[in-house]
Specification:
Elements lengths: L5 E7 L7 E11 L5 E12 L3 E6 L6 H9 L6 E6 L2 E2 L22 H7 L26
Antiparallel strand pairs: 1-4, 2-3, 2-5, 5-6
């Protein structure tokens, strides 16, 4: 539950990034046993451009849920999220985060694993990147 999340802000690192606003966001999930799990309740935070922020709390308190919402990987059941006054409703190559564990799509090639994180809302890769060679071939499955 979100009562245990501490938001720590500190150094400014990139003045070109935008303001992130989380306003009264709530998110509940149904777990594998069919029970309702409240991951976030009425969370609000504003992250200024260039501000370095850490989410600190015990396992299960909602840190990853909040990051998934900001990245556009999930939608809140209540409240809103904004990047520079534009509501976050889907993923965007300008936003992202690094997972705690490395996550690959084992059925995809190395190239497609990298491309998956670069696709925009129209499923296009907005930048070009060179073929990644793994075991002698760019299309090898890891």
């Amino acid at each position: 539950m979100t009562d245990n999340i501490n938001v720590k802000s500190g150094s400014k690192i990139n003045e070109k990034s935008g303001e992130v606003r989380v306003e009264n966001v709530s998110r509940t999930y149904i777990d594998a046993h069919g029970s309702s799990v409240e991951a976030l309740r009425d969370v609000s935070v504003t992250i200024q451009p260039g501000e370095l922020v850490s989410l600190i709390g015990p396992s299960g308190c909602g840190k990853t849920t909040l990051m998934r919402l900001i990245a556009g990987l999930d939608l809140p059941q209540a409240g809103s999220l904004y990047l520079d006054d534009e509501e976050i409703r889907t993923t965007n190559y300008e936003r992202g985060f690094v997972f705690q564990q490395s996550n690959l799509f084992p059925w995809e090639t190395v190239y497609n694993n990298i491309a998956a994180g670069l696709k925009d809302s129209k499923n296009h890769i907005p930048i070009r990147f060179p073929a990644v060679w793994h075991r002698g071939h760019p299309w090898h499955v890891p």
